[in-house]
Write a structure and sequence with these properties.
By secondary structure, the chain is mostly helical. It is built from 12 helices and 5 strands. Strand 4 and strand 5 form a beta hairpin. Helix 7 packs across helix 8, helix 8 crosses helix 12 and helix 9 packs across helix 12. The structure holds adenosine-5'-diphosphate and magnesium ion.
Length: 277
């Protein structure tokens, strides 16, 4: 059975690391303190909360999905007096719930920000799982997997799942496996990528391609503009903001990113570079 899991929460033996964060959450639980957990999509917010509660044994989890709750009123009606943990990816929206003065949740929860599992913590866990299935993976290839999947916890697991799928016991993971895994990952999502591309403008497609190739640290640099084939930085900014609304890209402290790392690989592999100049 494939030992890599993505797309749902992981707990117990499938949960790696984060000892310090677990301890902090448990201390807040003891103090009856609400906590809000921030972080990118798929870094492991929900899993962290569930694992902290699971290890406590004395508590049980009540989960409310607030994804489609659009107003504070509905939110309030949905849950009035339970002990709460909040977790969300849309940072500015999440933050406004807890930081705007007229919100009923103003200052009601301690904020906790979590990053993707660090390579040093995650790599031994993943290596062990490959080895338990008689697959050898060198640090060099594990680093490749991290970089191709953008280092986000759930995306790394998804990549490992595909590597496992295309490999056999007794094999050592090689470039061949990486290439086959990318093919598999892309084939699973190709239709949705094509329909996403059909919905954006030609210049937005150009920006996506440049993001895929150059990354999003400096989307107004000369190099970026040249690759997009655009002369002005403000049009790039507009394209990024519009695609942010469509959840194709998002902004992080490290710059703009394509939301789905498999989409990034797809763009990289299937699009021709545009004429420069
Ligand atoms: N502590 C962890 N150890 C191993 N994998 C994890 C861990 N946390 C998250 N993951 C991976 O990330 C995926 C998404 O986790 P989840 O908790 O749903 O993230 P979020 O709530 O931040 O979107 C999981 O399915 C799993 O593949
Ligand atoms: Mg979640």
């Amino acid at each position: 059975m494939n030992p890599f899991h993505y797309g749902s929460i992981v707990t117990d033996k499938d949960f790696c690391g984060r000892a310090e964060a677990i301890k902090q959450i448990q201390q807040h639980m003891d103090g009856g303190q609400n906590v809000v957990v921030y972080g990118e999509r798929r870094v492991g917010k929900t899993s962290l909360i569930f694992e902290a509660i699971r290890r406590k044994r004395s508590h049980r989890a009540l989960r409310l999905d607030l994804m489609n709750i659009k107003s504070i009123d509905t939110l309030c009606r949905k849950f009035i007096s339970a002990p709460f943990f909040f977790a969300g990816s849309i940072r500015h929206q999440m933050e406004s719930i807890f930081t705007s003065h007229d919100s009923p949740f103003f200052k009601s929860a301690i904020p906790m920000s979590i990053d993707p599992l660090a390579y040093e913590e995650f790599a031994p866990f993943l290596t062990e799982r490959f080895e338990a299935g008689q697959r050898k993976v060198s640090a060099e290839y594990l680093e490749k997997i991290f970089s191709l999947s953008g280092g986000v916890t759930g995306d790394v697991q998804q990549f490992c799942e595909a590597i496992w799928y295309v490999s056999e016991p007794g094999e050592e993971i090689s470039q061949q496996h990486i290439a086959s895994a990318i093919d598999i990952l892309i084939s699973r999502e190709k239709l949705s990528f094509q329909s996403a591309l059909a919905k954006v403008t030609a210049s937005q497609v150009g920006v996506l391609y440049a993001l895929a190739v150059l990354g999003g640290k400096a989307p107004t640099s000369k190099e970026f503009l040249a690759l997009v084939g655009s002369r002005n930085a403000s049009s790039i900014k507009k394209a990024l903001e519009s695609m942010d609304k469509q959840k194709l890209v998002y902004h992080t402290e490290a710059g703009w990113k394509i939301m789905n790392p498999v989409f990034r690989l797809y763009l990289h592999l299937t699009m021709e570079p545009r004429a420069q100049g």
